[in-house]
Amino acid sequence: MTEEQMILQVCRVFQLRGEYRSYETITYGHINTTYKVYFFRDGEIKDYILQRVNTYVFRNPVEVMENTIAVTEYIRSKIKETGVSAKRSVLHYQKTAAGEYYTIAEDGGFWRCCRFIDDSVTFLNAESAKVMEEAGKAFGEFQKYLADYPVEKLHIAIPHFHNTVMRYETFRKSVEADVCHRAAEVKPEIDQYFRLEELATKMYKMQRRGELPLRVTHNDTKCSNILFDKDSLTHLSVIDLDTVMPGLVAFDFGDAIRSGANTGAEDERDIKKVSVDMVKYEAFTKGFVGSVRETLTQKEKESMALGALTMTVECGMRFLTDYLDGDKYFKIHYPDQNFVRARCHLALADDMIGRMDDMEEIVAKYCRD
Ligand code: GN1
Ligand code: MG
């Protein structure tokens, strides 16, 4: 069966009606495989997003879907309470004839499907400060909508996801096992990650001591996980709810800065191009902190900038771990991409360390306003 036949078969399981036109592959995500499919119905094009969930990463995809639907519906009802239409602010997942939000296809794949939100766009890198401020609002509001969500009802999609201490343990094991014989050639980078260990595990240890509260967080707050209106660039919906779990608010703040405020690409080879864009940093802070500041404790406010550094080191170290393991986790588009990503994150972390005082001051400013 060709890829296209497979896709069409899955579309039919999700009861998509009309005349199938075409599909395209969306290459933004590093984990799941995503397609956009076009149908023609009632005189117009209807488009949908079809995803094959990565079951190597998500060992229990049924639970991931339960979380996703529960959170989606919770947010939908919160938005409706405000009297605003939720049509373009939350995803609408398709059901199979059996009433399920997923199907296991002939290829053994775990598939899900949702409507494409009309006139929406997403960005790999926040293209402007305006987009970053909107991104901040999107994740801040997401946090607010879920503030009273019953945490105990959430499945833990990936245990220890942002447990930086555990991530270091895994990294250490991969360095020792060195299954692909790559450790020698990347020794300087390995050493640098170990030098950052104390600083990068500080936040997790604060949480363990009970100094920072667990909240319902998104945990993967890349700019590409937000849909924006293509004309006004205002935020519409937060997407990719696979990792919604209890977490620290600084994880969500921090990962957005790691991904959205880097002056270079996530896999920038020329590390001279890598630094924190402080205009974008401030724009995101304004949007995010502006939405959540009333709910934050003093310690949480103080942990935001450290969250950016923590997420940068942790994510970079995960890329390096995967490089050492033989690129099993993150999708790569060229052979040493995980290594390049890891080296880029070291440069970004280094720049953040130099700017920590300014980063903290900017958060403090928006906490006061
Ligand atoms: C992955 O699925 P995607 O591409 O949004 C990863 C995140 C990383 C990110 C780095 C489940 O996110 O944790 O921060 O890549 N997701 C998972 O770009 O591991
Ligand atoms: Mg994801």
UniProtKB/TrEMBL annotation:
Q: Which Gene3D superfamilies match?
A: 3.90.1200.10
Q: One Pfam family this chain carries? A: APH
Q: Where is the Aminoglycoside phosphotransferase domain?
A: 37-261
Stored InterPro entries: Aminoglycoside_PTrfase, Kinase-like_dom_sf, Pseudomonas-type_ThrB
Q: Which protein are we looking at? A: Aminoglycoside phosphotransferase family protein
Q: Which organism is it from?
A: Candidatus Scatosoma pullistercoris
List the lineage, top down: Bacteria, Bacillati, Bacillota, Clostridia, Candidatus Scatosoma
